[in-house]
Amino acid sequence: MFFKWHNSFYKGACHFLYFPMDTISKIFGISYPVVSGGMAWCSGWKLASAVSKAGGLGLIGAGSMHPNVLREHIQKAHKATTLPFGVNVPLMHPEQEALMNVISAEGVKIVFTSAGSPKKWTSFLHGHGIVVVHVVSSAKFAEKSEEAGVDAIVAEGFEAGGHEGREETTTMALIPSVRKATSLPLIAAGGIATGEQMLAAMALGANGVQIGSLFAASEESSAHPHFKKAVVETGEGGTKLVLKKLAPVRLIKNDFFRRVDDAESNGATAEELKEMLGKGRAKRGMFEGDLVEGELEIGQSASLIQEILPVDTIFKKLIQEYNDALCRLKNSRLD
């Protein structure tokens, strides 16, 4: 394993501490094995470029973008930084072909795909010299992704925000299972918002982490300030997975959530739930700031987020927490 010196000084048994420069860092050309989730309505060019400047891999979330909007965000990210960044494309997007054409034409070198089979686009992206990473929620889909030829995998646990797999497997159970199923570089996601959790994910077999909710509530996130404030105010148990007959999604418990939750409890059909959801509900909540009737997608780690911070400060805090936890564990060996 390669290491990067961190210039912090710990007053105790550990002095100068290390942060791992593992497979993920080398694949993406980044300093720290930390990826910001490509979140719809939150992950624009400002967030992506800020994460990349801080030493991680920033992702532009194409899920909420039309092709012309994505092109604008990519071009602005290129102007903001020469460091690597990527784009996340949900494969349920109705304009996915146009999005992929924009990505290849604009010189993006890293693409994360999700919510579908990576088979359709992996060869196309590889043909344009693009690294392909696919998001999975089970060991079975990790194996299928490896067969499709992707370069790395994100294994996302049930704790994550937004749309989830139907398996409802927690990150702590999922990462070891996926690690056994595939030899590909593995990024852990779901419920991670602290350096201690990063260290735990790597102890379970991950080579890096993808963090969503923490960056969704950052200063550079394109989410509405009202949504960010709601994230900070969300306590333990303040989110729940709903709309399981459509596409399961984790939401903050607001008025819209409670109506959907009650309808599901009373046996609402998929069509009835679809009618309740309507169109533009996530945009209304996360981008426009309607905390009553909007869809407020966030992960369980919201309860760990205490304030809205700039990305650079978030990174320094994550790295310090990681190194402090590593230091504490150094002398905790069981004999």
Describe the structure.
Helix 6 crosses helix 7 (171-181). The protein folds into 2 domains: 13-222 and 303-326, Aldolase class I (TIM Barrel), CATH 3.20.20; 225-300, no CATH class. The longest helix has 20 residues, at 311-330. 51% of the residues are buried. It is globular and about 50 Å long. The protein is 41% helix and 18% strand. By secondary structure, it is of the alpha/beta class. It starts with a strand and ends in a 5-residue tail after the last helix. It contains 14 helices and 13 strands. It has an 8-stranded parallel β-sheet with strand order 3-11-10-8-7-6-5-4. A 3-stranded antiparallel β-sheet has the order 9-13-12, with helices on one face. A two-stranded antiparallel sheet has the order 1-2. The protein has helices spanning 23-28, 45-53, 67-80, 96-105, 119-127, 139-148, 171-181, 195-203, 213-216, 225-233, 255-265, 270-277, 281-287, 311-330, and strands at residues 2-9, 16-21, 34-36, 58-61, 85-90, 110-114, 131-136, 152-156, 162-163, 186-189, 208-211, 239-242, 249-252.
What are the main properties of this structure?
3-stranded antiparallel sheet; 8-stranded parallel sheet; alpha/beta; TIM Barrel; 18% strand
